[in-house]
């Protein structure tokens, strides 16, 4: 897979979703991620309401690898079924991200949008 450039985020329309929204931007054709797999990804995340970026592996200039079971629930639910080479958008409500307002994380209570490139499974 060639290195893609950092994705652009479209401004969301309408209210934030109450449940996880999964949208494939590019279908991958490599190995498929399964629950509990370790994945190598490039990703960027923005807040739904403000559109402000809060994190990006592109900003650090390198991919990141981690086990799905160690991530927020929205990633655990939203990445399985994705294939290497794919790019997927996840819109994650607070209960599948960092919990309600006052949860102790700076993103608590916020709906988050991630665009994720799945580079490698395993």
UniProtKB/TrEMBL annotation:
Q: What is its EC number?
A: 5.2.1.8
Family annotation (Pfam families): FKBP_C
Q: Mind telling me which PROSITE patterns this protein's record contains?
A: FKBP_PPIASE
Catalytic activity reads: [protein]-peptidylproline (omega=180) = [protein]-peptidylproline (omega=0)
Q: Which InterPro entries match?
A: PPIase_dom_sf, PPIase_FKBP_dom
From the UniProt record, list the coiled-coil ranges. none
Top EC category: isomerase
Q: Which UniProt keywords apply?
A: Isomerase, Rotamase
Any one GO MF term held by the record is: peptidyl-prolyl cis-trans isomerase activity
**What family does this chain come from, according to its entry?**
Belongs to the FKBP-type PPIase family.
List the protein's name. Answer: Peptidyl-prolyl cis-trans isomerase
| Protein species of origin | Microbacterium foliorum
């Amino acid at each position: 897979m060639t290195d893609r450039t950092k994705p652009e985020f479209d401004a969301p329309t309408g209210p934030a979703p109450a449940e996880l929204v999964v949208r494939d931007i590019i279908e991958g054709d490599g190995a498929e991620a399964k629950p509990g797999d370790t994945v190598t990804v490039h990703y960027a995340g923005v807040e739904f309401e403000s559109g402000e970026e809060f994190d990006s592996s592109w900003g650090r200039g390198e991919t990141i690898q981690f086990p799905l079971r160690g991530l927020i629930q929205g990633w655990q639910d939203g990445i399985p079924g994705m294939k290497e080479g794919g790019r997927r958008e996840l819109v994650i409500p607070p209960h599948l991200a960092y919990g309600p307002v006052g949860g102790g994380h700076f993103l608590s209570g916020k709906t988050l949008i991630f665009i994720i490139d799945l580079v490698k499974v395993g």
